[in-house]
TrEMBL record:
Lineage summary: Bacteria, Bacillati, Bacillota, Bacilli, Bacillales
Coiled coil: 79-106
The family this protein is said to belong to: Belongs to the MreC family.
Functional description taken from the UniProt entry: Involved in formation and maintenance of cell shape.
Lineage: superkingdom: Bacteria
Pfam families on file: MreC
The Rod shape-determining protein MreC beta-barrel core domain, residue ranges: 124-278
InterPro entries named among the record's database cross-references: Cell/Rod_1, Cell/Rod_MreC_2, MreC, MreC_beta-barrel_core
Keywords of this entry: Cell shape, Coiled coil
Cellular component terms per the entry's GO annotation: plasma membrane
Gene Ontology BP annotations: regulation of cell shape
PANTHER family registered for this protein in UniProt: CELL SHAPE-DETERMINING PROTEIN MREC
Protein name: Cell shape-determining protein MreC
Length: 299
């Protein structure tokens, strides 16, 4: 009796498996319209998925946006650093280009306008506002061979002044704008014949040098546009250093001489590099003039 019931259960299980396999086989077949249990299950799953998808998508999108914003921030930061570095490099290249052009110009000046003269190139390292029109400091001194009264010219080769005093590593340069009685400059006007005179002062309003003691004779004719250079007659400065060009001519003291106004070729307000020019033979000034210069240096 027990074996019968046991066999009965086994038979029922087998029948159930057969029915399940048959149902599965029938379900797997292609059908134009799914059965209602399938539709019910699919609709239920779709509804649940719809409820969960939007919140999940919002949370996922929020974190994606944060990641994107952070990535954009890092990229902008890197690009800004590259732009800053590029601007720095461009500024350095421009500075080097300007310096190269200045040194090229100085080399050309030395080879063309200062040939035959012993020169010392120097940088302007100081220029105080209260003495802007009078004095500047250069980077060469006694240890470099600089001596008082040496001529100083701009990087373009135009005379700007003379060395007033020297220390071990720097020198004070007195500009032409500060000409006084004790440091007049012997000059000549170039032409068919050399016309000599003395540069005695500077007109700060018109920015012109005043050249006096020009002979007033029939065969001495001074015309605007003529070049003026140092004559070397003063015994200190070498000859041939360009000063400027004649802008106008008039009568001098008591009508016995002529006075010329000279437009300097040097730009006294923008001087960065200079040449100090040495004269091979220097004539010492008279004792009275030496005393005046010594008193001026003490002041």
């Amino acid at each position: 009796m027990t074996n019968f019931f046991g066999n009965k259960r086994l038979i029922a299980i087998l029948i159930g498996l057969i029915v399940l396999i048959a149902v599965m086989g029938a379900t797997l077949k292609e059908r134009p319209v799914p059965t209602w249990p399938e539709r019910f299950v699919k609709d239920s799953v779709s509804f649940v998925q719809g409820l969960l998808y939007k919140p999940t998508a919002m949370v996922s999108g929020f974190f994606d946006d944060i990641t994107h914003i952070y990535n954009v921030y890092e990229e902008n930061k890197a690009l800004k650093a590259q732009i800053d570095e590029h601007a720095k490099l461009e500024a350095e290249v421009n500075a080097l280009r300007i310096d190269n052009e200045k040194y090229r110009q100085m080399l050309n000046t030395k080879d063309s306008k200062l040939r035959g003269n012993e020169t010392y190139a120097a940088d302007v390292i100081a220029r105080t506002p209260d003495r802007w029109n009078n004095m500047l400091t250069i980077s060469k001194g006694k240890n470099d061979g600089i001596e008082p009264n040496m001529a100083v010219v701009s990087s373009q080769g135009a005379l700007i002044g003379r060395v007033q005093s020297v220390s071990a590593f720097s020198s004070q340069v007195e500009l032409l704008m500060d000409i006084e009685q004790a440091n007049h400059i012997s000059a000549l006007i170039q032409g068919t014949q050399n016309i000599y005179g003395v540069i005695e002062s500077y007109d700060l309003e018109k920015h012109e040098l005043i050249m006096r003691k020009i002979p007033k004779v029939k065969d001495v004719v001074v015309k605007p546009g003529q070049y003026v250079t140092t004559s070397g007659m003063g015994g200190v400065m070498p000859s041939g250093l360009i000063i400027g060009r004649v802008s106008s001519v008039g009568d001098g003291d008591y009508g016995l001489t002529q006075t010329a106004r000279i437009t300097p070729l040097a730009n006294f307000y923008q001087i960065e590099q200079v040449f100090v020019v040495k004269r091979n033979f220097v004539v010492q000034p008279p004792p009275q003039e030496q005393k005046q210069k010594a008193n001026k240096a003490k002041k």
